[in-house]
Amino acid sequence: MSERPTPESLRDRLVSDLRLEATDDADRFVGQNVHHPSGRVFGGQVLGQSLMAAGRTVDPERHPHSLHAYFLRAGDPSVPIEFAVERLRDGRSFSARRTHALQHGRPILSMIASFQTADEGLDHAAPMPDAPDPESLPTTADVLAGIDHPTAHYWSHERPVDIRNVDEPIFLRPASARRSDSAVWWRTPAALPDEPLVHAAVIAFASDYSLLEAVLRRHGVAWSTPGLKIASLDHAMWFHRPARADEWLLYTHASPSASNARGLVQGHMHDRQGRLVVTTTQEGMVRVPRSGG
After folding, report:
1. pLDDT for 45-104, tens place per residue?
2. CATH code, 219
3. Which domain of life is it from (predicted)?
4. What pLDDT sits at residue 241?
């Protein structure tokens, strides 16, 4: 087995892939693919890169406050992704951008993002739920110790974010309780640059990892279920307050509905100070093999 990457190398690889390569066109960028054991391009990667591309065309004083994206096609991990940004509007306080992520001349993701200059206004937020400290929870490597499988190795040692389950993990078997909610703590394994756009892009990247788990838990399904097919369909985010992706964030998920091979999940991220910093919503395809032939 190859030498395990260090936390710093995982961080550097992620930041490098999210920064994108410039082209002769100021509104077009090229991004490389982050390794993922599914053999497909990870949706969170394209989400984070699309946000980064849009942000590169906006005044640096304007930070992302929302995005709405549709995953249109599975990405080809062997081919770089081109990001084409359309400048929809630049007002006194807000800027709007549309980004298309393209492979083989076709969009694999379409996103509209909005950016805002910091402003004063009314302020309230839902309180942070109770949860054990992340340091008290086992790492994914702890949970999957002794499992000799490439996917287990990736989740344990190569994933560029440290995710710790608050609830009973469902990597190998369903949870004992069928509930439509779940929670994880997460952060990058090493400190990130002090660039708000980088942190927002990493938060978008990580937001796609665990959301649909709330659907699986409700129906007694484990990630390792043979024949399970799961994919993000659309994704929305609201960035309420400044947040760092290299400091622990509590990410809670709740699924109000599943039907027609789709599951809907709503998520919230709170920082260690108890501030609500991000809200997410995602609908995904969830297909479980039928029993009985």
Report:
1. 999 999 999 999 999 999 999 999 999 999 999 999 999 999 999 999 999 999 999 999
2. 2.40.160.210
3. Bacteria
4. 97
Residue 196 within a domain: yes
Q: Which of 17, 162, 208, 246 is catalytic?
A: 208
Q: pTM for this one?
A: 0.95
Burial (Cβ within 10 Å: 0-12, 13-18, ≥19) of residue 142: exposed
CA nearest neighbour of 249 among 231, 237, 267: 267
Residue 107 lies in a domain: yes
| Number of compact structural domains in the chain | 1
Q: Which residues contact 165 (CB under 8 A, 6 or more apart)?
A: 137, 138, 143, 182, 183, 184
Place of tokens 């990580």: 206
133 included as an active-site residue: no
Cβ-contact 86, 102 below 8 angstroms: no
Backbone angles phi, psi at 39, to 5 degrees: 80, 5
Can you read off the two tokens belonging to residue 69?
């994206």
Q: Is the dihedral of CA 278, 200, 255, 139 positive or negative?
A: negative
119 burial via Cβ count (<10 Å: 0-12, 13-18, 19+): exposed
CA-to-CA distance for 96 and 129, rounded, in angstroms? 33
Report how far residue 169's alpha carbon sits from residue 188's, in angstroms, rounded to the nearest whole number. 20
**Residue 25 appears among annotated catalytic residues:** no
The reply to whether 95 belongs to the active site is: no
Asked if 185 contacts 138 with a C-beta cutoff of 8 angstroms, the reply is no
Q: Which of 180, 182, 210, 232 is catalytic?
A: 232
